[in-house]
């Protein structure tokens, strides 16, 4: 497929701008370009066809099964898109006086209230722009709390070895030292290792529950007690809240602060570089440190300051609010229960087909397979299986994560998939397993039917081509 620059022809284009009806305002000389930008020149019909062709190459939740583990790639209701497109939401300006956007303020307040109820927190801010930004904000709250009390020795954040990679990264960015906590043989936090790691330098623990291998931390009350008794706080990574929303609340488990992913749990668009949204909730004793904004209040007495320009990714918030209002209180829990049911259904199907789960028994919203045995037996890796799934119109699951599982494939079917879809996926994976044993070479070359075959991933990583090089002359 040609790049748009390769389709460009000098002098070609579409110029249908209406006549200027306001005074012209030329760009000041110091801001003007010295030469025109090298933009593609292309007619409207060719431009439209080019982007339609690109769209046909993309794969999203509206195209097929998308079991991307830990990312909750579930269907985004079109109702949310309709609400976010209302002129009263799209036609505002972030610098408008507060009294002219009362409806928008009410929508944000309703969202904050709903998220506080779901998480068991007392206060919520919508400012953080994404999940990792929410982590960073929550860690700044923990840091401000300890410093306000004069407890400056608390410089260590504990992170389980199964955690999302953003956890240690966010802690390091917030100025903390990261200390890993190993998992036990059951894939859960090792309590003795946690006790040994806690001490006067412990600022807090970051924890996902259910954790990244899809298991609920059955000792969660003991975990939070251990950290609290050591003087630390407990941070809830809300990446996996889709499994428990409306059923169990982080605040009731002993968590002091949390972030949520509206682009995972609350059915707003996900991926493609954004926008996302990572609201942060906290217990009342941390409220004095919460960020504020000119429109929604100036934060607490000892606020960490504004963490996002203006008032968050507002239209993402509107989509999430529409989702919550459409479900209502009772059906929020139903969505979580559906996610858990679908995950266990698919897990059982794949185990019956011959795959090995990393951890036996019931899972929550996601599960991890280990293909270590298959690779030793046939040479077929988790990457080979994931690539083969593309030929059958299924987006691959997360590969090689978490690192505590060798040859890992992590599946999260979500609650929005029908049983027929899960049956089809299980049949496809059963056939791939058969081929792995009968014709492993065919899987090493997969995918066979996609527009792009298997690229040289090593070369792509070491020598990426990220810009167009114009021909000389």
Which features would summarize this protein structure in a list?
Aspartate Aminotransferase, domain 2; 2 domains; 16 helices; alpha/beta; 38% helix; 473 residues; three-stranded antiparallel sheet; Aspartate Aminotransferase, domain 1
Brief overview, please?
The protein has helices at residues 4-7, 44-57, 78-84, 87-90, 102-119, 131-148, 166-173, 191-197, 220-229, 250-253, 314-353, 372-378, 382-390, 419-438, 440-444, 457-462; strands at residues 123-125, 156-160, 177-181, 202-208, 233-238, 257-260, 280-282, 367-370, 398-399, 408-411.
Explained architecture:
Helix 5 runs parallel beside helix 11 (314-353). The model has no long low-confidence stretch (mean pLDDT 94). The chain is globular, with a radius of gyration of 25 Å. A seven-stranded mixed β-sheet has the order 1-7-6-5-4-2-3, with helices on both faces. It has a three-stranded antiparallel β-sheet with strand order 8-10-9, with helices on one face. Helix 7 (166-173) links the parallel strand 2 (156-160) and strand 3. With 473 residues, the chain is of the alpha/beta class. It has two domains: 80-323, Type I PLP-dependent aspartate aminotransferase-like (Major domain) (Aspartate Aminotransferase, domain 2); 334-449, Aspartate Aminotransferase, domain 1, CATH 3.90.1150.10. It has helices at residues 4-7, 44-57, 78-84, 87-90, 102-119, 131-148, 166-173, 191-197, 220-229, 250-253, 314-353, 372-378, 382-390, 419-438, 440-444, 457-462, and strands at 123-125, 156-160, 177-181, 202-208, 233-238, 257-260, 280-282, 367-370, 398-399, 408-411.
């Amino acid at each position: 497929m040609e790049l748009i620059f390769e389709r460009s022809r000098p002098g070609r284009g579409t110029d249908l701008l209406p006549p200027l009806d306001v005074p012209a305002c030329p760009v000041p000389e110091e801001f003007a370009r010295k030469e025109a930008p090298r933009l593609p020149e292309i007619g409207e019909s060719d431009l439209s066809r080019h982007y339609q062709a690109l769209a046909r190459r993309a794969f999203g939740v509206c195209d097929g099964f998308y079991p991307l583990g830990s990312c909750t790639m579930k269907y985004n209701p079109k109702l949310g898109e309709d609400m976010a497109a209302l002129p009263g939401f799209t036609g505002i300006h972030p610098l408008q006086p507060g009294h002219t956007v009362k409806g928008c303020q009410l929508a944000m307040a309703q969202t904050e209230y709903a998220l506080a109820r779901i998480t068991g927190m007392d206060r919520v801010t919508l400012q953080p722009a994404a999940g990792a930004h929410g982590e960073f904000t929550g860690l700044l709250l923990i840091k401000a709390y300890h410093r306000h009390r004069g407890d400056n020795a608390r410089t260590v954040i504990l992170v389980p070895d199964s955690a999302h990679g953003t956890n240690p990264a966010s802690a390091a960015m917030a100025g903390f030292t990261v200390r890993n906590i190993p998992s036990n043989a059951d894939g859960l936090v090792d309590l003795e290792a946690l006790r040994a790691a806690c001490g006067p330098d412990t600022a807090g623990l970051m924890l996902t529950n259910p954790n990244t291998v899809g298991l609920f931390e059955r000792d969660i009350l003991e975990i939070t007690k251990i950290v609290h008794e050591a003087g630390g706080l407990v941070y809830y990574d809300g990446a996996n809240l889709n499994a428990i929303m409306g059923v169990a609340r982080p605040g009731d488990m002993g968590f002091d602060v949390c972030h949520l992913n509206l682009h995972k749990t609350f059915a707003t668009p996900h991926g493609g570089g954004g926008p996302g949204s990572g609201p942060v909730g906290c217990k009342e004793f941390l409220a004095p440190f919460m960020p504020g904004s000119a429109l929604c209040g100036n934060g607490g007495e000892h606020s960490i300051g504004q963490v996002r320009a203006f008032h968050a990714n507002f239209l993402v918030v509107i989509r999430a609010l529409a989702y919550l209002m459409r479900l209502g209180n009772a059906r929020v829990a139903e969505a979580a229960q559906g996610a858990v049911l679908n995950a266990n259904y698919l897990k059982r199907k794949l185990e019956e087909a011959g795959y090995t789960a990393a951890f036996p028994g019931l899972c929550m919203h996601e599960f991890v397979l280990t293909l270590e045995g298959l690779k030793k037996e046939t040479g077929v890796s988790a990457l080979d299986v994931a690539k083969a799934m593309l030929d059958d119109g299924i987006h691959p699951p997360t590969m090689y994560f978490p690192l505590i599982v060798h040859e890992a494939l992590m599946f999260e079917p979500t609650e929005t998939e029908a049983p027929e879809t899960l049956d089809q996926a299980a049949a496809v994976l059963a056939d791939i397993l058969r081929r792995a044993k009968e014709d492993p070479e065919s899987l090493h070359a997969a995918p066979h039917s996609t527009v792009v075959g298997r690229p040289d991933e090593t070369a792509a990583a070491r020598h990426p081509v990220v810009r167009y090089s114009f021909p000389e002359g």
